[in-house]
Amino acid sequence: MDPRADAIIDRLGGATGLHWFRAPGRVNLIGDHTDYHDGFVLPMAVDRDCVVAARPRVDGRVTVRSVEVSGEVDVAADGSDDPAAVEPAWGRYVAGVVRALGSAGRTPAGLDAVLSSTVPVGSGLSSSAALEVAIALALTDAAGFAFPPAELARACQRGEHLATGVPSGVMDQLVALLGRAGHAVLIDCRTLSAEPITLPDALAVLVVDSGLTRTLADSAYAERRADGERVAARLGVPALRDAPLDVVRNEPRARHVVAENQRVLEFADALRAGDDARLGSLLLASHASLRDDYEVSTPQLDLAVGLLVEHGAIGARLTGAGFGGCVVGLVPGDDVAAVASRTVADYRAQSGLDAEAFEVRAVDGAGPLTAPVGA
Ligand code: ADP
Ligand code: MG
Fold this sequence. Notes:
Layout lengths: L3 H8 L7 E12 L9 E17 L4 E6 L5 E5 L14 H13 L7 E7 L9 H17 L5 H16 L6 H8 L4 E6 L4 E6 L4 E7 L7 H19 L16 H22 L2 H17 L6 H12 L4 E5 L6 E7 L3 H16 L4 E5 L6 E3 L6
Parallel strand pairs: 3-5
Antiparallel strand pairs: 1-2, 1-12, 2-5, 2-6, 3-4, 6-7, 8-10, 8-11, 9-10
């Protein structure tokens, strides 16, 4: 039984009538700042997740509590609460999803829910998408709606926009829904088609949380997105995904997006071919491009990438939006513990920051859970 179940059941006053759901966090192996330019990404769902249990309510209210964060969220199921104004602040994600589902013609029914998440908060493994998707599953279940994954992901993405004002892409929500154990997922962010790609058994996926809080991330994210959209408009293409590389050769931001799309496809090919050397060099090229062309790295992230490689990763890169958060490396399975401990020790000595390194495994995407034993 999941150790979180007791805490959840306790807060809901017993196990009777509860419906359970889970949604995982994710790490993106390659393809950052491409999703909102209609491009390609290759994330995997990870073995850290948000679990939620919910029971229907008849009064049209959606009430949610978190085991980890205090406060009770209480919003109208009809979406009439402005998500950006909800308190406690984490409830904005709940209110955003409620409103977005309503706008998509799927007005939620009331429910009383408690969630608990093992996805680290604010470090780039997408605890927000895990929360949105878990709540969205509970809401659509309570209202008796089936919702195809791509539409549910879009609704959760819109919910995040309403909650935060940040025009983020759809990758996080989609992989939270479509992850597959042992696989990364190649996503075309224009069509939302998703293809699972087998991960090699011999390589571990090591995440290093830099301990650096993402500060400038939100405003810089919106700026980067607008920059790229301006270039696409000037070139007369629907999105940067459609720009040929030679046309954007002298425009670093656009060049990153176009070249990164290419790297994602090559990385998927290298996974299929078992070409580890190619995987490593693509990871490093992606990091260099995010650092030099897209300018979303920091000295600390560069340091963590360098140390991972120095200590035995075949390649590494920052993952997620940048400006702090996590880096990811591929490491020969037998070496994971040594690479992790040496990287963390050297990182602390050279940056003064406490990093945390942990292996993640690719898991299945979100869905209902059978009630925990004893419930
Ligand atoms: P990331 O998605 O990279 O973890 P974000 O800043 O996008 O970082 O999302 C983090 C936010 O998600 C938190 O500040 C909080 O509002 C919400 N959140 C995540 N996990 C929980 C949780 N267990 N309980 C309540 N809120 C959570
Ligand atoms: Mg997030």
